[in-house]
Amino acid sequence: MPLSRAEHEDYYLGYANSVLWPMLHGRVDLLDVSSGQRATYEAVNRRLAKLARPHLRDTDILWIHDYHLIPLAAALRELGVTNPIGFFLHTPFPDAGSVQALSHSDSFLRWFAAYDLVGLQTSRDVARFLDAFRSAGAAQLISGRCIRWQDEIIRVGSFPIGIDADGFRDMAEDAIRTQTPPLSSHRLMIGVDRLDYTKGIPNRLRGFQTYLRDHPAEEDRIAFVQIAPPTREDVGAYMDVRRELEQLSGEVNGEFSDIGYVPVQYIHRAVARSAISGLLRRADIALITPLNDGMNLVAKEFVAAQDPEDPGVLVLSKFAGAAEQLEGGAVLINPHDPASVADGIRKAARMPVGERRQRHEQMYDILRQSNGDWWADSYLRALEASAVIRISNLASLGQGSLGPMTSPLTAFPGKL
Ligand code: ADQ
Asked: Which domains are seen in the chain, by residue range?
């Protein structure tokens, strides 16, 4: 569905990426709630619903993803769609205060009520989701995953997104066979992100700077490669973070470079996935410091890419969703505190191989158990169960039809 130029500005750059994205990440200081772009956001979702409607069969299950499309289920329900509709939010769910910062916070919450099941990344997100409804008033908690709010029943669950760990490991092994190894003799630390202000890239550079100041000895030197291609460059906050990052990496290199040693290599362009997998495999440390992140798949990809006999160490922000699953194996840090980041780097750089192996094994097991297939299957099963409850409620009220709902998953074509 093509967007007009005005829709691109008001829907995509505007409401989705200058209102919802910062709000969902708790950056209410960046919100522009007065802009009136919400009308376009809803209109685009309605248009998409109209386009999709004629293609829907009775047996279809709809699984809608992410913050660009939150009102899509409500728009489909307006057109009479009774199919099971699920939603998965890839970002964090914010605290109640951030939701209240939207001038239409009740409408925002009501968009979720049209879904049979709202999927979030972590149990912390589920707790915040329920809290947002409680704070909006007139809410009754039915269970830890279900709330009645303004006569709507809303079901929610945490479904941490997974990766194909074995597939990624194979790609990384292939990549190091074909890639030229880096010339640097120093330990390699890596960061891979979209250049986004939520990813805490300046914070990690400040932490690395603190580490270098505290550890001037030559044997403690680490070469840090940060890959951060631009995204959403037409949004002002993204230009600001780019400038800050360029200035900081220049500052760190100015302070600590030596003959044969450049502390920070900052790559501001896209790098192919297989090349990234090889770099992750070669890295001794991954430094992943988001200020707030739904999951952070790079953290999981780094773990998957490692050689189990000599694995690197994951230094991870406690504000990444991945920290909930990986806390036993990763070195968790507070990205707001450069001393905490520096301490995490030091710990990772000095960790003995036995501890590295044990931590890696623990994390790899978790990745395999909760891989991408598990994520899709467990979500869809929970969606089916929620939809059955809604349809039987409708049927007992004399509305809707049980016809299409007999067993939606039997019509579902295997794994996603
Ligand atoms: P993103 O914010 O894009 O995703 P992330 O999970 O880190 O963040 O990355 C998604 C994918 O993009 C990964 O496969 C990663 O390898 C790739 N990627 C990231 N940076 C890259 C780069 N510089 N070059 C090439 N590839 C890169 C959103 C949420 C996250 C959530 C995901 C999935 O913000 O919190 O983990 O969705 O739910």
From this structure: 5-161+373-390 (3.40.50.2000), 165-369 (3.40.50.2000)
